[in-house]
UniProtKB/TrEMBL annotation:
The name this protein goes by in its record: Protein kinase domain-containing protein
Ranges annotated as biased composition (Low complexity): 611-625
Domain Protein kinase: 2-284
Organism: Eruca vesicaria subsp. sativa
Cited InterPro entries: ARM-like (IPR011989), ARM-type_fold (IPR016024), CIK-Related_Protein (IPR051177), HEAT_type_2 (IPR021133), Kinase-like_dom_sf (IPR011009), Prot_kinase_dom (IPR000719)
Biased composition (Polar residues): 635-648, 681-707
Swiss-Prot/TrEMBL HEAT repeat ranges: 366-404, 523-561
Region (Disordered): 611-794
Organism superkingdom: Eukaryota
Upper taxonomic lineage: Eukaryota, Viridiplantae, Streptophyta, Embryophyta, Tracheophyta
């Protein structure tokens, strides 16, 4: 029972085996008889400090002072006083002797003397850091003296420790006691354990044990002297050996020297109050102290002051000691952002400081704060995060992006602010590679589909660019389903020229994902029409795209042809040329590897086109038919351009070709190059256009026009006949005599005016149709209707 009560009174534990901490290696120095160990928590492995004090028996004076220190440290709380976590007292027996050890567990710290050596600061940076530390210790001493009416009794370099964030903290409370100056009848020592203090640190009244004078002195008199000793040890770089050394003021800064001398006054009543030392604006006002002080009272500042401070902070941080910025300012900044006291510009400063960390430290010290900020409702914070996502996006794991970051970022796709929508879109370039296929296909593509029809042209353009960049992260099925429709049906038909240009660039960038059929039937028909686009940049990109895709088709054909030659055991007719093309187009060859299989699969159609192209110059008899087949197929795709998705393969096009060249469904019955003979109706129209102007109109002759035209057409060239068919005008009125004469004169004076014939304004009537002139160009389809009408009118 006695041991239990002693454990409760003397500490918060019952024994070393129950201590929930692991004791590590000791530091080389500590205050008094204590040993300072490194330690870790058994629960979560967090770092701690463990102080141990041993004595031969329970009545040892050092142990009594140690118990006093434990009690004081547990009860006194201040930001600049060492934080208490746990304590215990353990008694061990070794034969006839016993040993008692007191353990104190605190936040992780290290001796100030060791930290100064580790930092190795010089000149101005050292003075600024010393000013920050002295400011913190002075506040702790002032708190004890003025607010708690306590006397520490041994303020010196050994009684100061440093946290991982480089804060200075006061400890060594073994001598600490209440100031009983109001007790005039007291005659004994005011500090029961003053014998633990070295003589060099004692003021003259303590050396003489003049407790009456001490009680008549202010509460801060003893600790002001100790603070002067600390200042001397800091700037001299060595421990105080004897009291006389305090007269050496060579290393003391001039702005601090007057206060230093007042702290060490020989008369206790004239010593400077520690609270007054904090008012030394000349010494304590520097960039580091001001910055840390502002961060400490950030909640008391208004939004204007915060905004001004954080906008200047990145430049100020570059002028401060790098290690102090990373270990002191960075944690303060991260904490203020996480708990909402900082404004959006603070994120810029956080990322700049974080860029000075190693990759692993960045993930531990900065990234958790950034991930939490994505859940912020502050639009300014969200904008700042999206603007700087490229600086931290690579450090985030796929799981964090997919589960914690993307759900919050995705809300920006539907934001009312176009600026935020565009930033959200651009951020996907960094985040999309880390998203799962389920998120990419099920969520992201749905948002991008809506953004591609956004009211802002820039957003539509950037959506197309993003799709082209993230296409490689989509699975094959999604690419087949999305890319062509997104780039052709939407992007290439956008009214905004840069959006059309982006669609062309995206198609070229993703060319490796399309097979030959898709290129020939869905891509090229939509791209070719842009070669006559009103915008010159779009036209230029369209020509380049056409060349690239034709080169891919040609290259795939040559690969397929070479493969067939090898299989049959034959020898290539042009091995050198094939090798040269393969080397010159090596990049396309590499990109075209995914296309090899589709090319082989469609070998039934591809070789026929290639063979036709290679055999076209061989004989004059074969050339017309081959060219006609080729043009009919490609233009059939072109006429389907407004709805490219309706043509899914080569079968429909080939069926249309087999039905004949004059089919209205093909739209190429008026091909001016490939028709070997003009039709009788076309010859009649051409003959009518070549009649003299003075010839009067003859309605009766209209019925015999096909016979005359058929006879004359045999003597005319193919090109004249076919271009004449394109120039055939449509009737505009039903008045035959006057309009016929006027039209003949117009055709002779301006042959191109006939091409501008408009579509008929009334239904086609064979007997009442005239040859009036119009102001709008005729559609080739309408020319075919004129042929049929004229023939039937006869």
């Amino acid at each position: 029972m006695f041991n239990f009560l002693k454990g409760v009174v003397g500490g918060s534990g019952t024994g070393l085996k129950d201590l929930p901490y692991n004791i590590g290696d000791p530091y080389p120095s500590a205050w008094g008889s204590w040993v300072h160990y490194r330690g870790t928590s058994k629960d979560d492995g967090s770092q701690v400090s463990i102080f141990a004090l041993s004595g031969n028996n329970a009545q040892d004076g050092h142990l009594a002072a140690g118990r006093n220190g434990v009690k004081r440290l547990r009860t006194v709380r201040h930001p600049n006083i060492l934080s208490f976590l746990h304590s215990t007292e353990v008694e061990t027996h070794d034969g006839s002797t016993s040993k008692v050890t007191i353990y104190i567990v605190t936040e992780p710290v290290m001796p100030l003397s060791d930290k100064i050596k580790e930092l190795g600061l010089k000149a101005t940076q050292r003075d600024e850091y010393f000013a920050l530390g002295l400011h913190q210790i002075t506040k702790a001493v002032s708190f004890l003296n003025n607010d708690c009416k306590l006397v520490h009794g041994n303020v010196c370099l050994a009684s100061v420790v440093v946290t991982p964030t480089l804060d200075w903290k006061l400890h060594a409370f073994d001598v600490l006691s209440e100031f009983d100056g109001s007790n005039g009848s007291a005659s004994g020592p005011m500090l029961p354990f003053e014998w633990l203090v070295g003589t060099q640190y004692k003021p003259m009244e303590m050396v003489k044990s003049d407790w009456v004078a001490i009680r008549k002195s202010p509460p801060w008199a003893i600790d002001s002297w100790g603070l002067g000793c600390l200042i001397y040890e800091l700037f001299s770089g060595s421990k105080l050996g004897k009291t006389e050394e305090l007269r050496n003021t060579v290393g003391i800064p001039k702005s601090l020297l007057p206060d230093y001398q007042r702290l060490l006054s020989s008369m206790p009543s004239r010593r400077l109050n520690t609270s007054k030392l904090l008012e030394n604006g000349e010494y304590f006002q520097n960039k580091l102290v001001d910055t840390v002080h502002f961060m400490d009272i950030l909640n008391l500042k208004d939004s204007v002051e915060k905004d001004t401070f954080f906008r200047k902070l990145p430049n100020v941080a570059e002028q401060l000691p790098r290690e102090i910025v990373l270990k002191k300012l960075l944690p303060l900044l991260a904490s203020s952002l996480e708990f909402g006291s900082a404004v959006a510009p603070a994120l810029t400063a956080l990322l700049k400081m974080g860029s000075w960390l190693s990759t692993e430290d960045f993930k531990v010290k900065v990234l958790p704060t950034i991930v939490k900020l994505f859940a912020s409702n502050d639009r300014a914070i969200r904008v700042s995060l999206l603007q700087h996502v490229d600086q931290f996006g690579e450090s985030m794991s796929e799981k964090i992006v997919d589960e914690q970051v993307y759900p919050h970022v995705a809300t920006g796709f539907a934001d009312t602010s176009a600026f935020l929508r565009e930033l959200t879109l651009k951020s996907m370039l960094v985040l999309a590679p880390k998203l799962s296929q389920r998120t990419l296909s099920g969520s992201l593509l749905k948002y991008l589909s809506k953004l591609q029809v956004d009211e802002e042209p820039a957003i539509r353009t950037n959506t197309t660019i993003l799709l082209g960049n993230i296409a490689t992260y989509l699975n094959e099925g999604t690419r087949k389903r999305v890319l062509i429709n997104a780039f052709t049906v939407r992007a290439l038909r956008d009214t905004f020229p840069p959006a059309r240009g982006a669609g062309i660039v995206a198609l070229c960038a993703t060319s490796t994902t399309y097979d030959d059929t898709e290129i020939a039937t869905k891509i090229l028909p939509n791209v070719v029409v842009l070669t006559i686009d009103q915008d010159s940049e779009v036209r230029s990109k369209a020509f380049q795209a056409v060349e690239q895709f034709l080169q891919i088709l040609k290259q795939n054909y040559e690969k397929t042809n070479a493969g067939e030659t090898i299989v049959t055991g034959g020898v290539s007719a042009i091995p050198e040329t094939a090798g040269l093309i393969g080397w010159a187009m090596s990049s396309l060859t590499i990109k075209g590897k995914p296309l090899d299989q589709p090319a082989l699969a469609s070998s039934s159609s591809a070789p026929s086109l290639a063979a036709a192209a290679s055999n076209a110059p061989s004989t004059a008899a074969e050339a017309p038919s081959v060219r006609a087949s080729h043009h009919t197929r490609s233009n059939s795709d072109f006429t389907d351009q407004p709805a490219p998705s309706s043509t899914d393969g080569w079968e429909d096009t080939e069926n249309g070709i087999s039905e004949g060249h004059d089919s209205d469904n093909d739209g190429w019955d008026l091909d001016p190059i490939d028709e070997p003979k003009p039709s009788p109706a076309l010859s009649n129209i051409q003959a009518a256009q070549k009649r003299p102007v003075s010839q009067p109109s003859r309605p009766a002759a209209t019925s015999s026009r096909p016979k005359i035209s058929t006879a004359k057409a045999a003597a005319k060239s193919e090109d004249d006949d076919l271009w004449g068919s394109l120039a055939a005008p449509q009737p505009a009125t039903t008045s035959r005599p006057l309009n016929l004469k006027k039209k003949v004169q117009s055709d002779d004076d301006d042959p191109w005016a006939a091409i501008a014939a408009p579509p008929p304004s009334t239904r086609a009537k064979p007997l009442t149709s005239g040859r009036g002139r119009a102001a709008k160009p005729a559609v080739p389809k309408l020319g075919a209707q004129r042929i049929n009408r004229t023939s039937s009118g006869m």
